[in-house]
Structures
1.
Amino acid sequence: MEKASPEILLSKIFDSDYRKVSPTLVSFLSPDTKSSLVLYYRQSSPDREAPIQYSPYQNSESQALTLDQVEKLGKVNNLYFDIKQIPSTEVDHISQKYLESFKNLDITTPKGLKEFSRLLPNYVDDSITLPAIFSSPSFKDTILNITEKFSQLRVDSASEQLIQLDPVTLAHSLGTTFITFNFRNFLDSPQLYKKRNIPDELAQSLLVELPPQQLIFSCLYHDLGKYNIDPDILHKPGKLDPDEWETMKTHVQFSYDFFQNVVKDNPSFPFQTGLLSILQHHEDDLGTGYPNALKKEQLPLLSRLLHITDIYHALTSKRPYKEAYTPQKAISILKEDAQKGKIDSALLNIFICSLEFPNK
Ligand SMILES: [Fe+2]
Ligand SMILES: [Fe+2]
């Protein structure tokens, strides 16, 4: 088995080579999760003399691009992609997927748009700019730090196991990590949260409960226990029967036990908070979750946040039994859960803000 040094883990996460050989990870960076590429549209001005402008689709406040900058974008069928993070050989594949993902959506014709009038759906795509997170030093440093601590504790096997997970679960683990870290980043950026009228005190009080190392540890490894689930159940293209469902639920305990064994020998295990959230990521505020049917008051913020981001990522991803839902559909499902009291509406609202949807 490949030895998972921090460098190898990082390269698995960041290297384009890995994306090339792993279709699922490519799709993680493409429309199957509808969350990564920056799309630009070409906008003609009513004034014929004015230059054509290219603007990022998801953010009308952003500066339009100059023609010079456009040269650096990948283009297929009048879609323009920021391909800084993606090898040009993959642009065709990714563009194709983008087009497919738009095909069946409710489509309107945004004013002033030409080429896109038939292609763009009437929602603003999930605009988490993953490349920004990829290059965030604090993100990389935190992962390096975690894997270094693993090596001191002699649990390199955790990283090895993570890399060996099936591609869907690996992509989900990474995707959930990015989305959750993005939430933390949002609360750590006054220029972003002030625009959404989130008070400083609220942002600060939430941040205190989301230490970056605990957050990344719990997100990366929350579904590690799926290595122990029968692949026929894990990848079943239909609904699980009750027995299969019970088996599936055990992944949480397996993830927890994997590290619990290490904790026994190392009482000062540095990721206790994160480990608890791994165990609790399928609990809900109402007490209808598993494995312990805990209620809101018994659940730390990190567990309740991971519960939301985990669902969001799963809903917006393609699975053997379903297509990738749009961010809008995923959010409306989460809002139904909030109405039932399963998740906290205030927390959900901040999560939606962190996705940078327009005023909601
Ligand atoms: Fe899970
Ligand atoms: Fe999960």
Note: Residues 222-223, 251, 281-282 surround fe (ii) ion (ligand 1) (CB under 6 Å).
2.
Amino acid sequence: MLTLEGFDPKKVESMVSLVRENFKKDYSKDLFFQMASLFPDKFITMMDDGVLIGFLMGTLISPKEVRILIFVVDKNHRNMGIGTKMLSTFIEKSRAKEIEKIRLEVKTTNENAIKFYKKFGFRVVKVLPRYYRDHSNGYMMYLDL
Ligand SMILES: CC(C)(COP(=O)(O)OP(=O)(O)OC[C@H]1O[C@@H](n2cnc3c(N)ncnc32)[C@H](O)[C@@H]1OP(=O)(O)O)[C@@H](O)C(=O)NCCC(=O)NCCS
């Protein structure tokens, strides 16, 4: 059974693995603990019978603006509406807190994700040359709430 949850310290290793598999980045477990303690309400996880299959980690960057730092759904669970559920929940929670803007960065080559975000109303506001570690370019995208 799928359940939408918040941060769970027992799932941090799975978060590290999901990030490694999908973004080829090695984040320390501490990063997740720190972010969850600073912004507990900006962490959204999806479990399938208790197994982490996706998560969204956000942060507050100004009193009225939040930023999505990590958003990922496990490969075997994509195109089932899980990303939509997590992002819609993040948007609803942000609105409830009177947040006015959501910002994120995405690789310019990540057509899937860009299309997905545009469906929610996100728009590209800036190109970020060589933004990523592999020197690929990024887009900064914003959603006005
Ligand atoms: C971007 C990402 C988080 C989306 O997650 P997801 O769970 O696959 O998203 P959804 O299933 O809600 O939506 C994806 C597509 O499936 C479609 N879909 C949703 N529910 C569906 C269902 N029940 N049956 C079939 N298709 C469905 C959606 O309409 C959407 O199609 P579209 O993009 O053509 O409009 C996921 O692809 C991912 O983790 N990508 C790799 C990491 C990444 O790029 N993250 C973003 C970096 S900024």
Note: The chain has a mean pLDDT of 97.
